[in-house]
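Progress against Task 2.4 (sequence-to-structure conversion) is shown through the following example record, which the project officer requested during the mid-term review.
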Amino acid sequence: MKVLFAYDGSINGDWVARYAIHLASNSKQRVLTIVSVIEKEFASEALVEKIDRIQTACHDRGIATDVRLIQAVSVAEGVIRALDDPGGTLIVCSVRTRGDARGYLFGTAAFQLMRNAALNTVAFRIVQPGLLGNPHNILLPVAGRPLGISGGVNLLHQLGTSVRHCRVFHALTVSANRYCRLTAREMKQLRLQGDSLVTAVGRHLAQQLDNPDILVDTSARVSEDWVREVIIDACAYKSDLIIVEAMGSSLRRGFRRNDPIERLLNQTPCDIAIHRQSG
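Structure tokens generated for the chain above:
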């Protein structure tokens, strides 16, 4: 899949650029399209210098670049105008560096792009800049069907040889009221149900990756708080990157501060990628 990087010229954007370069290096085209939306006819000298640095990093890895400076009303509009093949392009962008009253995603270009079901979008929050976009241990939280991880599989393919270990995690969530009243037998049944689901997803993931160099393991828990369990597992597993799908309910509600994705972005101990696959 082609890779398009929506670059805003910020330090955060520089960190996300490392992931964009890495993803482009594992694409068939080995081309990174860099799109920056500018207010005036000409880009600032500082932005041009920063784009030059990204181009140099690409050149060092044998990646061609296509820089497009676009005047547009919004970043999302400029990115969409730059797309030659929307269905065959992965749009890489960033979330806010710090969550404010609106959270990390709401109202951002990443949010607007994710709401467009025709686009493939991944938004990164960088917690470990020193990782330089080369994660080794991936945590893949899942909620349902094995086929639901297709977007995560595509990302894992394009992350390439840096990935060594992928952990599929499922937290079977029940209400706090019910959790406090679960009997030992009910807890065991729920755990078996979670284990069955995550094992099926892990098997499907291993088949899709078809890479013996990537170790795939699974873990399931019963909990009243999905976000807390993902955070705990990421810390225990020493994850470099969490890959999670932007849920339809979150997109419809607009990623408010109490949304699971927003809480995950706020509390994550490592880099996190929120993705939305077209279709």
